[in-house]
Amino acid sequence: MSTFNVPTKAEVSPNNQAIFENLESKLGFVPNLYAYFAKSETALADYLALQNRKSTLKAKEREVINLVVSEVNGCQYCLSAHTAIGKMNGFTDEQILEIRSGSAGFDTKLDALAKFAKAVTLNRGKASEAQRDALIEAGYDEAALIDAVIVIGDKIVSNYIHNLTQFEIDFPLAQSLELANA
């Protein structure tokens, strides 16, 4: 069985070492996902640029997408990271679990976004006309639809990287939906 190790700062390129230093100053540590991207000379900077791009979506809206997509893709690393980030953005534990299931009954606009993100992820980029209409009727415009798809793509990238490598999760472990709903 292959073992995929997260590189240390000393094991990455000088450019990636500088990014590590920036992450350490902002976050207090370098998350293992970001460190793993640094095995590639350009992937870490490219991924961070994608994650940090300007968007019509607010942080809470991006977290809804991150949680839904990570649940659909079964990525324990991203579920754990975005559960912590979701709490920092004001979601309760109960709301996070509901979002992960693909809905947000506590907020009609976020509910439409969660359902849209789940449909797009499950259907590999396709959503029904009704799902697209529900997103627009909830108050999102076409720019937000584009931004939502970009966040979905961003999260699919990180989900797939962790699902392929299974490196150590360095966030508090998110509870499985099955256990939470039992």
Tag the structure with descriptive keywords.
single chain; AhpD-like; mainly alpha; 64% helix; 2 domains; 182 residues; 10 helices
Commentary on this structure:
The chain is an all-alpha fold and 182 residues long. The protein folds into two domains: 9-51, no CATH class; 59-180, AhpD-like (Up-down Bundle). The chain is 64% helix and 0% strand. The chain contains ten helices and no strands. The protein has helices at residues 14-27, 32-37, 43-51, 59-72, 76-88, 93-100, 108-122, 129-137, 142-165, 177-180. α4 (59-72) packs parallel to α7, α4 (59-72) crosses α9 (142-165) and α7 runs antiparallel to α8. The longest helix has 24 residues, at 142-165. The two termini are 33 Å apart. The mean pLDDT is 96.
N-end to C-end Cα span: 33 Å
Strand percentage? under 5%
The total of beta strands comes to 0
| Structural shape | globular
Largest sheet: none
Mind telling me the C-alpha Rg? 17 Å
